[in-house]
Specification:
heterodimer; A: mainly alpha; 0% strand; globular; B: mainly alpha
Protein backbone atom coordinates (compact mmCIF):
# COMPACT_ATOMS: atom_id res chain seq x y z
CA UNK A 1 0.00 0.00 0.00
CA UNK A 2 1.40 3.40 -0.95
CA UNK A 3 2.05 6.16 1.55
CA UNK A 4 -1.11 8.29 1.72
CA UNK A 5 0.75 11.57 2.30
CA UNK A 6 3.56 13.42 0.60
CA UNK A 7 6.61 15.00 2.11
CA UNK A 8 5.19 18.50 2.17
CA UNK A 9 2.13 17.30 4.11
CA UNK A 10 4.39 15.53 6.59
CA UNK A 11 6.25 18.78 7.22
CA UNK A 12 2.98 20.54 7.91
CA UNK A 13 1.51 17.78 10.10
CA UNK A 14 4.63 17.47 12.21
CA UNK A 15 4.62 21.18 13.00
CA UNK A 16 0.89 20.98 13.82
CA UNK A 17 1.39 18.15 16.31
CA UNK A 18 4.70 19.23 17.78
CA UNK A 19 3.04 20.72 20.81
CA UNK A 20 1.20 17.47 21.57
CA UNK A 21 4.43 15.49 21.09
CA UNK A 22 6.30 17.74 23.51
CA UNK A 23 3.51 17.49 26.08
CA UNK A 24 3.37 13.69 25.86
CA UNK A 25 7.16 13.48 26.10
CA UNK A 26 7.14 15.76 29.11
CA UNK A 27 4.51 13.60 30.79
CA UNK A 28 6.50 10.44 30.08
CA UNK A 29 9.89 11.77 31.14
CA UNK A 30 8.92 14.17 33.93
CA UNK A 31 11.73 16.43 32.83
CA UNK A 32 11.49 19.22 30.24
CA UNK A 33 15.07 18.89 28.97
CA UNK A 34 14.83 15.14 28.54
CA UNK A 35 11.43 15.60 26.90
CA UNK A 36 12.99 17.91 24.33
CA UNK A 37 15.69 15.34 23.60
CA UNK A 38 13.04 12.64 23.21
CA UNK A 39 11.04 14.76 20.75
CA UNK A 40 14.18 15.57 18.74
CA UNK A 41 15.01 11.88 18.50
CA UNK A 42 11.38 11.18 17.54
CA UNK A 43 11.55 13.82 14.79
CA UNK A 44 14.66 12.17 13.36
CA UNK A 45 12.76 8.87 13.31
CA UNK A 46 9.76 10.51 11.65
CA UNK A 47 12.08 11.72 8.89
CA UNK A 48 13.43 8.23 8.39
CA UNK A 49 10.15 6.38 8.65
CA UNK A 50 7.42 8.64 7.26
CA UNK A 51 7.12 6.51 4.14
CA UNK A 52 6.08 3.59 6.32
CA UNK A 53 2.98 5.51 7.46
CA UNK A 54 0.02 3.65 5.95
CA UNK A 55 -2.84 5.78 7.23
CA UNK A 56 -4.32 3.10 9.49
CA UNK A 57 -4.34 5.68 12.31
CA UNK A 58 -4.26 9.46 12.29
CA UNK A 59 -0.85 11.03 11.74
CA UNK A 60 -0.73 12.42 15.28
CA UNK A 61 -1.41 8.94 16.72
CA UNK A 62 1.32 7.47 14.54
CA UNK A 63 3.72 10.21 15.62
CA UNK A 64 2.88 9.69 19.31
CA UNK A 65 3.68 6.00 18.89
CA UNK A 66 7.17 7.04 17.83
CA UNK A 67 7.52 9.39 20.81
CA UNK A 68 6.49 6.60 23.21
CA UNK A 69 8.94 4.18 21.58
CA UNK A 70 11.81 6.67 21.85
CA UNK A 71 11.03 7.14 25.53
CA UNK A 72 10.94 3.37 26.07
CA UNK A 73 14.33 3.00 24.38
CA UNK A 74 15.71 5.79 26.53
CA UNK A 75 14.47 4.15 29.71
CA UNK A 76 15.95 0.83 28.65
CA UNK A 77 19.33 2.46 28.00
CA UNK A 78 19.55 4.23 31.34
CA UNK A 79 17.88 1.55 33.47
CA UNK A 80 21.20 0.05 34.56
CA UNK A 81 22.58 3.36 35.75
CA UNK A 82 21.30 5.19 38.77
CA UNK A 83 19.52 8.16 37.33
CA UNK A 84 19.82 11.45 39.13
CA UNK A 85 16.40 12.29 40.45
CA UNK A 86 14.35 14.41 38.10
CA UNK A 87 11.61 16.60 39.48
CA UNK A 88 8.72 17.85 37.47
CA UNK A 89 8.90 21.60 37.72
CA UNK A 90 5.77 22.94 39.34
CA UNK A 91 5.70 26.67 39.22
CA UNK A 92 3.87 29.01 41.52
CA UNK A 93 2.93 28.70 45.16
CA UNK A 94 -0.50 28.12 46.59
CA UNK A 95 -1.59 31.13 48.57
CA UNK A 96 -4.95 30.37 50.12
CA UNK A 97 -5.98 27.18 51.95
CA UNK A 98 -8.13 26.21 49.02
CA UNK A 99 -5.24 26.58 46.61
CA UNK A 100 -2.96 24.69 48.97
CA UNK A 101 -5.46 21.82 49.18
CA UNK A 102 -5.82 21.75 45.40
CA UNK A 103 -2.06 21.75 44.95
CA UNK A 104 -1.75 18.90 47.43
CA UNK A 105 -4.43 16.91 45.62
CA UNK A 106 -2.69 17.46 42.28
CA UNK A 107 0.64 16.44 43.74
CA UNK A 108 -0.84 13.25 45.20
CA UNK A 109 -2.48 12.28 41.93
CA UNK A 110 0.70 12.94 39.98
CA UNK A 111 2.71 10.86 42.45
CA UNK A 112 0.25 7.97 42.16
CA UNK A 113 0.32 8.07 38.36
CA UNK A 114 4.13 8.24 38.31
CA UNK A 115 4.29 5.28 40.69
CA UNK A 116 2.22 3.02 38.45
CA UNK A 117 3.87 0.19 36.48
CA UNK A 118 5.18 1.34 33.08
CA UNK A 119 2.24 0.20 30.93
CA UNK A 120 -0.42 1.50 33.33
CA UNK A 121 1.42 4.79 33.65
CA UNK A 122 1.63 5.24 29.88
CA UNK A 123 -2.07 4.45 29.50
CA UNK A 124 -3.03 6.81 32.33
CA UNK A 125 -0.93 9.65 30.91
CA UNK A 126 -2.33 9.26 27.40
CA UNK A 127 -6.00 8.54 28.26
CA UNK A 128 -6.44 10.51 31.46
CA UNK A 129 -3.79 13.18 30.93
CA UNK A 130 -4.14 13.82 27.19
CA UNK A 131 -7.73 12.59 26.84
CA UNK A 132 -6.99 10.13 24.03
CA UNK A 133 -9.57 7.43 23.34
CA UNK A 134 -8.85 3.77 24.02
CA UNK A 135 -8.42 2.95 20.33
CA UNK A 136 -5.73 5.56 19.75
CA UNK A 137 -3.97 4.69 23.00
CA UNK A 138 -4.03 1.00 22.06
CA UNK A 139 -2.46 1.84 18.68
CA UNK A 140 0.23 4.04 20.21
CA UNK A 141 1.15 1.51 22.88
CA UNK A 142 0.77 -1.48 20.56
CA UNK A 143 -1.73 -3.25 22.76
CA UNK A 144 -5.45 -4.05 22.73
CA UNK A 145 -8.32 -1.76 23.63
CA UNK A 146 -9.37 -4.21 26.35
CA UNK A 147 -5.95 -3.88 27.91
CA UNK A 148 -6.18 -0.09 27.77
CA UNK A 149 -9.59 -0.19 29.51
CA UNK A 150 -8.16 -2.46 32.22
CA UNK A 151 -5.17 -0.18 32.75
CA UNK A 152 -7.38 2.92 32.96
CA UNK A 153 -9.61 1.15 35.48
CA UNK A 154 -6.61 0.17 37.62
CA UNK A 155 -5.19 3.69 37.42
CA UNK A 156 -8.51 5.22 38.48
CA UNK A 157 -8.73 2.74 41.34
CA UNK A 158 -5.22 3.57 42.57
CA UNK A 159 -5.89 7.31 42.38
CA UNK A 160 -9.22 6.87 44.18
CA UNK A 161 -7.54 4.92 46.97
CA UNK A 162 -4.83 7.54 47.31
CA UNK A 163 -7.28 10.42 47.65
CA UNK A 164 -9.63 8.55 49.96
CA UNK A 165 -12.55 7.58 47.76
CA UNK A 166 -14.28 4.22 48.01
CA UNK A 167 -14.03 3.27 44.35
CA UNK A 168 -16.43 0.31 44.63
CA UNK A 169 -19.27 2.57 45.87
CA UNK A 170 -18.66 5.24 43.28
CA UNK A 171 -21.27 5.79 40.54
CA UNK B 1 -9.30 12.98 52.53
CA UNK B 2 -9.56 15.21 49.53
CA UNK B 3 -13.02 14.42 48.21
CA UNK B 4 -16.24 13.76 50.02
CA UNK B 5 -17.35 10.11 49.95
CA UNK B 6 -20.99 11.19 50.13
CA UNK B 7 -20.73 13.01 46.81
CA UNK B 8 -18.87 10.41 44.89
CA UNK B 9 -18.06 11.51 41.33
CA UNK B 10 -18.89 9.67 38.12
CA UNK B 11 -16.15 8.23 35.88
CA UNK B 12 -16.15 11.35 33.70
CA UNK B 13 -15.90 13.88 36.49
CA UNK B 14 -13.34 11.71 38.23
CA UNK B 15 -11.30 11.66 35.02
CA UNK B 16 -11.65 15.44 34.89
CA UNK B 17 -10.13 15.71 38.36
CA UNK B 18 -7.20 13.58 37.23
CA UNK B 19 -6.85 15.55 33.97
CA UNK B 20 -6.69 18.81 35.86
CA UNK B 21 -4.00 17.36 38.13
CA UNK B 22 -1.97 16.21 35.17
CA UNK B 23 -2.38 19.50 33.33
CA UNK B 24 0.78 20.59 31.61
CA UNK B 25 1.35 23.95 29.94
CA UNK B 26 3.20 24.30 26.66
CA UNK B 27 6.67 25.75 26.76
CA UNK B 28 6.64 28.10 23.76
CA UNK B 29 10.38 28.54 23.79
CA UNK B 30 11.05 24.81 23.56
CA UNK B 31 8.36 24.44 20.95
CA UNK B 32 9.99 27.06 18.74
CA UNK B 33 13.36 25.40 19.19
CA UNK B 34 11.90 22.06 18.18
CA UNK B 35 10.25 23.62 15.16
CA UNK B 36 13.62 25.04 14.10
CA UNK B 37 15.21 21.64 14.67
CA UNK B 38 12.54 19.97 12.54
CA UNK B 39 12.90 22.44 9.66
CA UNK B 40 16.66 22.12 9.74
CA UNK B 41 16.64 18.31 9.75
CA UNK B 42 13.96 18.29 7.09
CA UNK B 43 15.98 20.57 4.80
CA UNK B 44 19.08 18.52 5.40
CA UNK B 45 17.30 15.33 4.41
CA UNK B 46 15.91 16.95 1.29
CA UNK B 47 19.40 18.05 0.28
CA UNK B 48 20.74 14.57 0.99
CA UNK B 49 18.01 13.03 -1.15
CA UNK B 50 18.81 15.42 -3.98
CA UNK B 51 22.49 14.58 -3.72
CA UNK B 52 21.73 10.87 -3.72
CA UNK B 53 19.62 11.27 -6.84
CA UNK B 54 22.15 13.54 -8.56
CA UNK B 55 25.19 11.45 -7.71
CA UNK B 56 24.52 8.46 -10.04
CA UNK B 57 23.46 10.86 -12.80
CA UNK B 58 26.64 12.89 -12.40
CA UNK B 59 28.71 9.71 -12.36
CA UNK B 60 26.99 8.46 -15.48
CA UNK B 61 27.50 11.82 -17.24
CA UNK B 62 31.17 11.87 -16.27
CA UNK B 63 31.69 8.33 -17.52
CA UNK B 64 29.98 9.20 -20.78
CA UNK B 65 32.17 12.28 -21.24
CA UNK B 66 35.31 10.31 -20.40
CA UNK B 67 34.44 7.51 -22.80
CA UNK B 68 33.56 10.03 -25.51
CA UNK B 69 36.86 11.85 -25.05
CA UNK B 70 38.76 8.58 -25.18
CA UNK B 71 37.01 7.49 -28.33
CA UNK B 72 37.52 10.93 -29.93
CA UNK B 73 41.24 10.85 -29.08
CA UNK B 74 41.64 7.41 -30.52
CA UNK B 75 39.83 8.42 -33.70
CA UNK B 76 41.75 11.67 -34.04
CA UNK B 77 45.07 9.87 -33.37
CA UNK B 78 44.36 7.33 -36.07
CA UNK B 79 43.44 10.08 -38.54
CA UNK B 80 46.59 12.14 -37.92
CA UNK B 81 48.81 9.07 -38.07
CA UNK B 82 47.32 8.24 -41.42
CA UNK B 83 47.83 11.83 -42.64
CA UNK B 84 51.49 11.85 -41.55
CA UNK B 85 52.10 8.51 -43.18
CA UNK B 86 50.61 9.82 -46.40
CA UNK B 87 52.82 12.92 -46.32
CA UNK B 88 56.03 10.90 -45.89
CA UNK B 89 57.93 9.76 -48.97
CA UNK B 90 57.85 6.04 -49.56
CA UNK B 91 61.00 4.69 -47.90
CA UNK B 92 62.30 1.45 -46.58
CA UNK B 93 61.20 0.67 -43.06
CA UNK B 94 64.74 0.14 -41.82
CA UNK B 95 65.88 3.59 -43.15
CA UNK B 96 63.07 5.25 -41.39
CA UNK B 97 64.06 3.72 -38.11
CA UNK B 98 67.73 4.69 -38.54
CA UNK B 99 66.97 8.33 -39.33
CA UNK B 100 64.66 8.55 -36.43
CA UNK B 101 67.18 7.35 -33.86
CA UNK B 102 70.02 9.58 -35.06
CA UNK B 103 67.98 12.81 -34.98
CA UNK B 104 66.53 12.28 -31.54
CA UNK B 105 67.96 14.55 -28.84
CA UNK B 106 68.67 12.73 -25.58
CA UNK B 107 66.36 13.58 -22.68
CA UNK B 108 68.22 14.84 -19.69
CA UNK B 109 67.63 12.64 -16.69
CA UNK B 110 67.39 14.29 -13.27
CA UNK B 111 69.85 12.97 -10.75
CA UNK B 112 68.98 11.93 -7.22
CA UNK B 113 70.49 14.15 -4.56
CA UNK B 114 71.64 11.19 -2.49
CA UNK B 115 70.22 12.78 0.69
CA UNK B 116 66.79 13.33 2.18
CA UNK B 117 65.08 16.61 1.11
CA UNK B 118 65.54 19.64 3.34
CA UNK B 119 62.65 21.36 5.06
CA UNK B 120 62.67 24.13 2.45
CA UNK B 121 62.61 21.61 -0.40
CA UNK B 122 59.69 19.79 1.18
CA UNK B 123 57.86 23.11 1.56
CA UNK B 124 58.45 24.08 -2.08
CA UNK B 125 57.38 20.64 -3.25
CA UNK B 126 54.20 20.83 -1.18
CA UNK B 127 53.51 24.37 -2.44
CA UNK B 128 53.93 23.40 -6.09
CA UNK B 129 52.06 20.14 -5.94
CA UNK B 130 48.65 20.15 -7.60
CA UNK B 131 47.05 18.08 -4.81
CA UNK B 132 45.16 20.59 -2.71
CA UNK B 133 44.05 20.07 0.83
CA UNK B 134 40.42 20.97 0.70
CA UNK B 135 38.88 23.08 3.41
CA UNK B 136 36.00 20.69 3.41
CA UNK B 137 38.16 18.03 5.02
CA UNK B 138 37.56 19.89 8.25
CA UNK B 139 33.83 19.83 7.87
CA UNK B 140 33.28 16.69 9.83
CA UNK B 141 30.14 15.16 11.18
CA UNK B 142 29.73 14.25 14.81
CA UNK B 143 30.48 10.61 14.08
CA UNK B 144 33.61 11.46 12.13
CA UNK B 145 34.77 13.72 14.92
CA UNK B 146 34.26 10.95 17.48
CA UNK B 147 36.15 8.44 15.33
CA UNK B 148 38.99 10.89 14.70
CA UNK B 149 39.37 11.65 18.37
CA UNK B 150 39.23 7.97 19.25
CA UNK B 151 41.91 7.06 16.73
CA UNK B 152 44.05 10.07 17.45
CA UNK B 153 43.58 11.50 20.94
CA UNK B 154 45.94 14.34 20.00
CA UNK B 155 43.43 15.72 17.47
CA UNK B 156 42.16 19.21 18.09
CA UNK B 157 38.56 18.89 19.31
CA UNK B 158 37.98 22.65 19.17
CA UNK B 159 39.05 22.83 15.55
CA UNK B 160 36.59 20.05 14.69
CA UNK B 161 33.70 21.72 16.47
CA UNK B 162 34.51 25.04 14.81
CA UNK B 163 34.78 23.50 11.34
CA UNK B 164 32.22 24.67 8.76
CA UNK B 165 30.26 21.41 8.58
CA UNK B 166 29.59 21.35 12.29
CA UNK B 167 26.38 22.83 13.62
CA UNK B 168 27.43 23.80 17.07
CA UNK B 169 23.89 24.42 18.31
CA UNK B 170 22.90 20.82 17.99
CA UNK B 171 26.30 19.22 18.50
CA UNK B 172 25.76 19.00 22.25
CA UNK B 173 22.34 17.38 21.88
CA UNK B 174 23.67 14.83 19.41
CA UNK B 175 26.70 14.05 21.57
CA UNK B 176 24.56 13.57 24.67
CA UNK B 177 22.30 11.26 22.73
CA UNK B 178 25.23 9.11 21.58
CA UNK B 179 26.89 8.95 25.00
CA UNK B 180 24.87 6.17 26.73
CA UNK B 181 25.17 3.71 23.86
CA UNK B 182 28.87 4.22 23.20
CA UNK B 183 31.81 2.18 24.42
CA UNK B 184 34.46 3.62 26.74
CA UNK B 185 36.72 4.86 23.96
CA UNK B 186 33.91 6.66 22.17
CA UNK B 187 32.65 8.08 25.45
CA UNK B 188 36.08 9.55 26.08
CA UNK B 189 36.03 11.22 22.66
CA UNK B 190 32.48 12.51 23.26
CA UNK B 191 33.50 13.96 26.62
CA UNK B 192 36.37 15.80 24.92
CA UNK B 193 34.02 17.25 22.35
CA UNK B 194 31.59 18.27 25.08
CA UNK B 195 34.43 20.18 26.69
CA UNK B 196 34.30 22.45 23.66
CA UNK B 197 30.58 22.71 22.93
CA UNK B 198 28.99 21.63 26.22
CA UNK B 199 26.75 23.78 28.40
CA UNK B 200 25.60 23.27 32.00
CA UNK B 201 22.91 21.03 30.53
CA UNK B 202 25.59 18.32 30.04
CA UNK B 203 26.70 18.46 33.67
CA UNK B 204 24.34 15.80 35.14
CA UNK B 205 25.39 13.29 32.49
CA UNK B 206 29.08 14.09 33.02
CA UNK B 207 28.67 13.71 36.76
CA UNK B 208 27.35 10.19 36.11
CA UNK B 209 30.51 9.46 34.15
CA UNK B 210 32.66 10.63 37.06
CA UNK B 211 31.52 7.44 38.84
CA UNK B 212 33.44 5.39 36.29
CA UNK B 213 37.14 5.34 37.15
CA UNK B 214 38.17 5.04 33.49
CA UNK B 215 36.49 8.28 32.45
CA UNK B 216 36.74 10.20 35.72
CA UNK B 217 39.63 12.52 34.87
CA UNK B 218 38.31 13.36 31.43
CA UNK B 219 34.78 13.98 32.73
CA UNK B 220 36.04 16.17 35.58
CA UNK B 221 38.16 18.22 33.21
CA UNK B 222 35.16 18.74 30.96
CA UNK B 223 32.88 19.70 33.86
CA UNK B 224 35.52 22.16 34.96
CA UNK B 225 35.64 23.72 31.51
CA UNK B 226 31.87 23.97 31.33
CA UNK B 227 31.03 25.37 34.74
CA UNK B 228 34.39 26.90 35.64
CA UNK B 229 36.63 25.82 38.50
CA UNK B 230 35.03 28.32 40.87
CA UNK B 231 31.65 26.59 40.54
CA UNK B 232 32.82 23.04 41.27
CA UNK B 233 32.18 23.59 44.99
CA UNK B 234 28.53 24.31 44.20
CA UNK B 235 28.33 20.97 42.38
CA UNK B 236 29.79 19.24 45.45
CA UNK B 237 26.93 20.63 47.54
CA UNK B 238 24.30 19.51 45.04
CA UNK B 239 25.58 15.99 44.45
CA UNK B 240 24.26 13.03 46.41
CA UNK B 241 26.85 10.49 45.32
CA UNK B 242 29.77 10.32 47.74
CA UNK B 243 32.26 9.14 45.09
CA UNK B 244 31.41 12.06 42.84
CA UNK B 245 31.67 14.53 45.74
CA UNK B 246 35.03 13.11 46.70
CA UNK B 247 36.31 13.29 43.09
CA UNK B 248 35.17 16.90 42.75
CA UNK B 249 36.84 17.88 46.03
CA UNK B 250 40.07 16.16 44.99
CA UNK B 251 39.96 18.12 41.76
CA UNK B 252 39.61 21.36 43.71
CA UNK B 253 42.48 20.47 46.02
CA UNK B 254 44.86 19.32 43.31
CA UNK B 255 44.25 22.35 41.10
CA UNK B 256 46.66 24.68 42.80
CA UNK B 257 44.92 27.93 41.90
CA UNK B 258 43.33 30.52 44.13
CA UNK B 259 39.76 30.23 42.78
CA UNK B 260 39.83 26.42 43.16
CA UNK B 261 41.12 26.55 46.72
CA UNK B 262 38.71 29.32 47.68
CA UNK B 263 35.93 27.11 46.34
CA UNK B 264 37.26 24.24 48.41
CA UNK B 265 37.43 26.42 51.53
CA UNK B 266 33.79 27.40 51.02
CA UNK B 267 32.96 23.74 51.68
CA UNK B 268 34.40 24.11 55.19
CA UNK B 269 31.80 26.77 55.94
CA UNK B 270 29.00 24.38 55.06
CA UNK B 271 27.85 21.99 57.80
CA UNK B 272 26.91 19.37 55.20
CA UNK B 273 30.34 19.15 53.60
CA UNK B 274 32.80 20.31 56.29
CA UNK B 275 33.69 16.91 57.81
CA UNK B 276 34.07 15.25 54.44
CA UNK B 277 36.26 18.07 53.11
CA UNK B 278 38.54 18.08 56.17
CA UNK B 279 38.89 14.27 56.15
CA UNK B 280 39.83 14.35 52.46
CA UNK B 281 42.47 17.04 53.03
CA UNK B 282 44.15 14.86 55.67
CA UNK B 283 44.07 11.84 53.34
CA UNK B 284 45.56 13.67 50.36
CA UNK B 285 49.32 13.18 50.00
CA UNK B 286 50.01 16.53 48.32
CA UNK B 287 48.24 19.64 49.59
CA UNK B 288 49.18 23.09 48.28
CA UNK B 289 50.05 24.29 51.78
CA UNK B 290 51.91 27.38 50.56
CA UNK B 291 48.82 28.60 48.71
CA UNK B 292 46.63 28.02 51.74
CA UNK B 293 49.10 29.95 53.89
CA UNK B 294 48.92 32.72 51.30
CA UNK B 295 45.12 32.73 51.65
CA UNK B 296 45.52 33.70 55.32
CA UNK B 297 46.01 37.20 53.91
CA UNK B 298 42.98 37.09 51.61
CA UNK B 299 40.71 40.14 51.64
CA UNK B 300 37.60 38.22 52.79
CA UNK B 301 37.55 37.23 56.43
CA UNK B 302 35.54 34.07 55.82
CA UNK B 303 38.23 32.76 53.46
CA UNK B 304 41.01 33.62 55.93
CA UNK B 305 39.22 31.82 58.75
CA UNK B 306 38.50 28.74 56.63
CA UNK B 307 42.17 28.58 55.62
CA UNK B 308 43.14 28.79 59.30
CA UNK B 309 40.74 25.99 60.21
CA UNK B 310 42.10 23.78 57.43
CA UNK B 311 45.76 24.40 58.25
CA UNK B 312 45.08 23.79 61.93
CA UNK B 313 43.31 20.56 61.07
CA UNK B 314 46.18 19.35 58.88
CA UNK B 315 48.47 19.75 61.87
CA UNK B 316 51.77 18.53 60.39
CA UNK B 317 55.37 19.68 60.57
CA UNK B 318 55.39 21.37 57.17
CA UNK B 319 52.32 23.44 58.05
CA UNK B 320 53.86 24.48 61.37
CA UNK B 321 57.11 25.44 59.67
CA UNK B 322 55.38 27.59 57.04
CA UNK B 323 53.12 29.24 59.62
CA UNK B 324 56.11 30.14 61.79
CA UNK B 325 57.93 31.55 58.75
CA UNK B 326 54.84 33.58 57.90
CA UNK B 327 54.47 34.89 61.50
CA UNK B 328 58.12 35.72 61.82
CA UNK B 329 58.06 37.78 58.63
CA UNK B 330 54.82 39.61 59.37
CA UNK B 331 53.59 39.18 62.96
CA UNK B 332 50.92 41.90 62.70
CA UNK B 333 47.69 41.46 60.67
CA UNK B 334 48.05 37.71 61.06
CA UNK B 335 45.34 36.79 63.52
CA UNK B 336 44.25 33.84 61.36
CA UNK B 337 47.84 32.59 61.06
CA UNK B 338 48.20 32.71 64.84
CA UNK B 339 44.92 30.83 65.19
CA UNK B 340 46.06 28.16 62.76
CA UNK B 341 49.32 27.75 64.68
CA UNK B 342 47.41 27.47 67.97
CA UNK B 343 45.50 24.54 66.45
CA UNK B 344 48.78 22.78 65.57
CA UNK B 345 49.75 20.52 68.44
CA UNK B 346 53.28 19.49 67.54
CA UNK B 347 56.38 20.32 69.54
CA UNK B 348 57.67 23.04 67.24
CA UNK B 349 54.37 24.96 67.44
CA UNK B 350 54.39 24.65 71.24
CA UNK B 351 57.92 26.02 71.46
CA UNK B 352 57.17 28.95 69.17
CA UNK B 353 54.02 29.90 71.11
CA UNK B 354 55.96 29.68 74.39
CA UNK B 355 58.62 31.93 72.84
CA UNK B 356 55.90 34.39 71.73
CA UNK B 357 54.60 34.74 75.28
CA UNK B 358 58.02 36.04 76.33
CA UNK B 359 58.37 38.56 73.48
CA UNK B 360 56.38 41.78 73.85
CA UNK B 361 56.43 42.41 70.06
CA UNK B 362 54.72 39.03 69.49
CA UNK B 363 52.63 38.70 72.64
CA UNK B 364 50.07 41.36 71.67
CA UNK B 365 49.25 39.64 68.37
CA UNK B 366 49.21 36.24 70.02
CA UNK B 367 46.77 37.45 72.66
CA UNK B 368 44.49 39.03 70.02
CA UNK B 369 44.34 35.66 68.30
CA UNK B 370 43.60 33.89 71.58
CA UNK B 371 40.70 36.22 72.32
CA UNK B 372 39.34 35.71 68.83
CA UNK B 373 39.72 31.95 69.16
CA UNK B 374 37.85 32.00 72.45
CA UNK B 375 35.03 33.99 70.85
CA UNK B 376 34.76 31.50 68.01
CA UNK B 377 34.62 28.40 70.17
CA UNK B 378 31.72 28.60 72.61
Amino acid sequence: MACPIDRHTVDQLVVDHLSLALRVAQRLTNDPDTAEDVVQEALCRVLKQWKSYRGEATFSTWMMQIVVNVDRDRRRRWRKLDELPHELCVSGHAESNEQAAAAELNETIRAVINGLPDRQREVALLCLGEGLNAGDAAYILETTEANVHTCVHLARKRVAEAIGIDYARRK
Amino acid sequence: MYLDNENLPSDESFDDVIRVSLFLGTDEHRLRRLERFWHMQSRRQTRLRQVLIALPLAAAALSAVALGALEWNRHKGAESALAIRNMLPRTNNSDLIDTDTTDRTPIEQSHLAGRPPTGYERFVFAARTSAQISATTMSVTIDEAIIRLRLNPESNAKQMIDSPGFERDFAEVLLLRRLPRSNNEDQRAIVRLLAVCGTPRSTPVLLRLVRQAALREEALRTIEQIVGIENLAELVRNTDDKRVRSALMRRLLTTDTEPALIGYLSLLRDDGTRDEALALAVEMPQIPIATFVGLLDYKEESVRLSAAILLGHLNNAEVTQQLITRLTKKPSDSTEAWMALMACHDELAGRFLAYATERPQLLGHFNTARVRWAQMIP
